[in-house]
Amino acid sequence: MIFKRIKKRFGLSLFVATLLLNSDLSTAAATLTVSVKTADGSSLPNSQVSVVYLTGNGSDKMPSRHSSTPEMAQQNLQFSPYVKVVQRNVNVTFPNKDDVAHHVYSFSKNNAFELPLYFDQKIPSRAFSNTGQVSLGCNIHDWMLGFVLVVDTPLHAQFDSQVAIIDNIPSGTYTLHFWHPGMDRRENITKSIIITQNSQAQTIQLQYQVKHCPNHKPPRSSLMTPVTTKTKPLPIKELEIWLAKTK
Amino acid sequence: MAGQNKVIRHTKIMARLGFLLGSLGLHSEAYAVDKLKLHGLLDVQAVTVTGRDNSWLDGGPLGLRYGEGDNLIQFAQGGFDLSYTLAPTLKADVTALAYTSDQAEVTISEALLHYRPIPNSQWRQEYRVGVFHLPGALENRGPLWSSPYSITPSVINTWLGEEARVLGAETRWSLPGKFRQADYDVSLYGAIFGGNDTLGMMLTWRGWAQHDRIAGIGSRYPVADLPQLRDGALFEQQARRYQPIVEVDNRPGYYFGGDLILGKQFGRGRTLKLSYLYYDNQADPTVIKNGQYGWETKFHHLGAHWRLSNKTEVLAQALSGSTLMGKGLTSSVEADFWSAYTMLTHRLGAHRATLRWDRFEVEDLDETPEDSNHEHGHSWTLSYSLNWGKGFKTSLSRIHWESERQGRHYNPDQGHNIKTQQWQLSLRKYW
What we know:
The structure holds two protein chains of two kinds.
Chain A: H1 2-10, E1 13-24, E2 29-38, E3 51-55, E4 73-75, E5 78-80, E6 83-87, E7 91-93, E8 102-106, E9 113-118, E10 125-127, E11 132-138, E12 145-151, E13 156-158, E14 163-170, E15 172-179, E16 189-195, E17 207-210
Parallel strand pairs in A: 6-12
Antiparallel strand pairs in A: 1-2, 1-17, 2-14, 3-13, 3-15, 4-5, 7-10, 8-9, 8-11, 11-12, 15-16
Chain B: H1 2-24, H2 32-35, E1 36-49, E2 73-87, E3 90-99, E4 105-115, E5 124-132, H3 155-162, E6 166-175, E7 184-194, H4 201-205, E8 221-222, E9 241-242, E10 253-262, E11 271-280, E12 288-289, E13 292-293, E14 295-307, E15 312-325, E16 333-348, E17 351-364, E18 375-389, E19 392-405, E20 417-430
Antiparallel strand pairs in B: 1-2, 1-20, 2-3, 3-4, 4-5, 5-6, 6-7, 7-10, 8-9, 10-11, 11-14, 12-13, 14-15, 15-16, 16-17, 17-18, 18-19, 19-20
């Protein structure tokens, strides 16, 4: 009971990952399905912010599987999506879908960059040549926070509700990585797995301690009018005049 | 055909011009305004006050803005805040305020450059250069330094608004928790400044006050008919107007402080902000220039802003310091002062109710019987406000003000004690 209270207080959760492997003999490739549950068996809130990816077996030489250009938009004074996983050297666009300027930056090691004040006239893009987590901020809206996770493999997936699916995995030995913006960044959550043409469904339990995601939503006080996107342009009043709303 | 083209071209030009002008206007949309931002405030009030004392703005002993003899309808404040983005990280900001009725004036309350370089580490740096308010007034978070909680701010923030303004350079270093998975933000700041050498003067000679007048560059306020300031008296050199924002000794002052914000990252709308500030204007207490003495004033300031939820907040500030004027001159003034308040505010949709209790005291330490500046008192403020939307806000507030000041016996018409209720009904328009 006390432990539960402490856990709640410090916002820690334990995660269990379940891996399902399905082989498809016709293409000699497997599909990996990963689900994540918290230690008490409940489903993971905001699971979309979690990422799984496989490295090894020459995956760094495999071509990109991004079906379209990955996008890290700024919308409603937030980064959207909160987390985006991309392959190394793939262009990421940063469209501004708000009616105010944003000034996006990152000081993350090896991937520092800056996209000065801009609106929608141009859509800047960046390719990240180093793997790792790129924490994004906005110099105008201090609460804004987003992550681009740069990986050196096309075998990556973000969770869609409760599962993440990586398909067409060539047989071989891989390292499975799990990433979540709330996990201890000094920790490297990995598990070696062998994928063969006749792999069976298996359950692997990995335990991670994950804190809550840092807050990245605009404070209530920053919004005077409901924030809308370009499709219905309305002036978004910024911090200075929030009072005129119902604060 | 050519004529038709001309008409089309003219129409296009006019449309573009219209858009340009529109985008410079107050209700402009889209991107042209993004560099130039204009926010404004108009405040009209209906006021009634009990008691027979005049407001200090009329030369009376009452620390409130309105007193006996003031009109029912008041144009309380008008102003705008214009900011211009000079570069992606550099903004110029000017706030102008206008007051009519008692001591009418148009003044610039802030004029500064604000530089926020792109962080290259977890530390965020910010710089302000120019004329600006001190950090730490927790209530005055609204546009043009107004308070969203009540029409009239606390005694402390009234004083910070009327006497404390600096011409200086400030640096602030913040360590936001969001980038390092920490549930607290830390911020440290410091400044070197001039232009605030008379801080403490009004506090000592007039006493603490509670009103919504914000001083600006060149603001002058009436000096009451105090015997110690009359011709031939101890401080006859004091001009007939207080000038709170002036430099008299060409000696820089400084302040430094810090904020700690807990719970911003992982909390559920519950945050606690704690702040500390130490201020010392390092004024030369032996100097008098253009009828304004140097008041060597230093104070400690503590603040706490606790958001219990998105709706309920508790604010508290405490300020304690000392001032010295005229050391080495024939007479001097030495006083300690303090004030503190606690405020509870609750918002329900567009409605807000606020209750605040202020206490204040000046302790005169010099032994000059002709210049007694002892004062102690307290006030209760009860305020209700309703946001109509579109920037319209109506507030109703009642201040119960009690102050005891021995120096009032110098004037045979005045008693030591003042006990007054001030009712204000305000209609504000923000844009």
